[in-house]
Amino acid sequence: MTRASTPAKINLIFEVGELDNSGYHGVNSLYLELDLREEIEIKPSLGTATLSVAGDLPARHLNAVPTDSSNLIFKVAHALCEKLGVELPAIEIELYKRIPVAGGMAGGSADAAAMLVAFNSYLHERFETKLLTTPELKELAATLGSDIPFLIEGGLQIGVGRGEKLTPLSPLTFETHWVVCVSSEGLSTPVVFAKFDELFHAEPFSDFSALKIAGLEDLAAVMSNDLEEAAIALLPAIAITKARLLELGAVRSMVSGSGPSVIGLFSSLEQAELARVSINNSGGFALVASASYAGTRLED
To answer: At how many degrees (to 10) do helices 134-142 and 107-127 cross?
Structure first.
């Protein structure tokens, strides 16, 4: 049995560039890892490769995860086997989810990162394949999804291109505590980008390398998301959630990625927990998370 876990991510800053020739927008992003962690467990099976899903999330989220070959986990497994020159073995894959589905926090990419690290180790131990290094895993990850390379190493990083070209930054010198408000409705990332194109023109990118974030107020001042207004145009309830977080004491609230999740930055874990309880008691669904710097790792 081999286990690995992977964090969630948020984009502290998310700038959207022009469409490139392949139909994708360039991005300029500041990624931060959060300690909501997905877990993958792999063990031998007598049949074919199978995937099962459990987790701490509402049934709507767990039921939305495909368990067939369309899941990115299986695409990772096939890509890794092809690179290492082996057939896909009979395995049972158990996925434990803590990251909301379609919430702008890269839950699917986190699953893929955990599978890459776990399956790399599993194949090496059982079939004596080459054990790929972290740079080799990140190179393969970039062919499978833009957020996966960041999630392998985690921490705080600038991401450009489609987000896969990364520059690590030093960890923040202060704690950050976040309330993640999960919408009962989903938003399609391509639809949000299309709405952005309808409403706005891309602006020149900022230079994040010179950012000075010495404390909570500095962080709140630089947080921004070019997709926020597009997401709100598609789902106006997002604006209500943003305002609610500010009422509950958030220093800053913002749409996470392409939405529809909304994140609130709080000055203490106690304040964040109080806000989470208030939102959940009023019929919403919120989680508390903190910044972390562990990346994807094998678990005992």
So the answer is: 130
